[in-house]
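ARCHIVE CARD
Drawer: 12
Card no.: 0347
Subject: one protein chain, sequence and derived structure
Cross-reference: see card 0346
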Amino acid sequence: MKPYKTESGNQRSTHVAVKKLAFSYPGEQLVLKGVDLEMLPGEKVGIIGPNGSGKTTLFLLFAGILAPASGSISILGNPVRTGSFNSNLGFVFQNPDDQLFCPTVRDDLAFGLLNLGYSKEESDSVIDKYLNSVGLTDLAERPPHNLSGGEKRMISIAGVTIMNPAIVMLDEPESSLDSRARRHLIDFLGESEKSLLIASHDLEFLLETCDRIVVLDKGRICADGPSKKIMGDESFMNSHGFEKPHSLVPHVNQHHRNSYREHSQ
């Protein structure tokens, strides 16, 4: 499958530029092997791949938590430096407990804002407006460790997006969410004007949130393009260990099918 290409003449600068990126953990073979990727402002890009294909590793490299073996990553035109904080990039971890560590939800949300230079009054005002807008006001004074898995997930996403980064990476963001919270998250991400990178095994979730899909397998990008086109290719999906999403499989109404049979006899 041919890789996705932006339209010629598009003058928008890239938000993310990855060139020939390679990485291996100590004593192991390469996890990523010469990955090239570009992302434009406002794009919502889903990343799929089998377990161990390098999705989370890629996010850790973007965030500067890991250092590449070779290649380069630029965020908004600036090279990523290992160990340095980048306020333009937000990372929602796969496990919410890796992010939530303060006595209350309000304290957790304030942590990033205060470190960005907000005053206590400014921070409280932003938090109140934000929690009200996402329907989480009732959780403000609760200890994070007493929340349900889905509530922890939503607060961990809030803790990143409230800091207003230009790019947000989300690792399995729909995990632990019930159907109502899942729909709320889909709507929230759909309304976002930020550049989004979403890694997930939930193909239906990605179809609703991302117009573009990147398929990562054995450390390489093997497809990059429109979500429905790539995930609708049953042969390609099967070859990489996926099933074609149910919503992309043509359905025949049983009543119409029976009527046709009766009419044809």
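Annotation on reverse: The first strand starts at residue 16 and ends at 24. Confidence is low (pLDDT under 50) at residues 1-11.
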